[in-house]
Amino acid sequence: MRLTFLGTGTSFGIPVVGCDCARCTSDDPRDRRTRHGALLEGPEGSVLVDTPPELRLQLLRAGVHGVDAVWFTHGHADHTHGIDDLRAMTARRGAPLPAFANSDGAAMLRERFGYVFGEGQPRGRARPWLALESIPEGEDVRVAGLTITPLALPHGEMETAGFRVGALGYLPDAQDVPESVIGALDGVEILVLCALWYGPPHPAHLNVERAVEVAERVGARVTYLTHLTHRVGHAALCESLPDSVRPAHDGLVVPVPDAEG
Known about the structure:
By secondary structure, this protein is an alpha/beta fold. The protein is built from eight helices and 14 strands. It has a seven-stranded mixed sheet. Strands 7-8-9-10-11-12-13 form a seven-stranded mixed sheet. Strand 2 and strand 3 form a beta hairpin.
């Protein structure tokens, strides 16, 4: 399996509109970060992780023609408001695209995108055609030839749906990582963690310092940090992080060994 980081920025994206800080004006393309999204590709199909506002541009850049399922980590706008960009895929499929979200996320999606998930809506090119399922608590999800183990993470007043697929652990927006999740990640080789910045703790997200602590406890061969703000630059992070922890960047492709479930 391989993992492609489609977007690695926080909800503002980088550059931030109207900001002239060193990261927002950087010449390093790795400092240009769109909102969070990723793609898992296995031998039998692919799973899109989230539908951020820049999804169409991300998919074009990565050369993605279609996906076999969508995994929504949660319902926040920076993770869902590119949902219309799935229309081109579902129009060609002629069948609904499987989509998964936890109970909080599914409720937010149905409320915000009634034209997609409401009963009696016309099928066709006017809207995406998704078959939304709630992620079963304590059960694996088998989709696109991959076995996905859901991992619940605290994120402010809600939970996000992280996951494990074989040797990959993927922990999106979270303010902390429970002991049960640490245990469920035993043996992973690649870990993905959200990390906003160096500095004060955030009520809904890990900072870099805490993410490094979690990475050390999990013990993956490589941990990639994502969901980064304009307070941290790619090159500076590369210099300051431990050797086993690296900043991800938009377009980064990572092979994941022995990840097919």
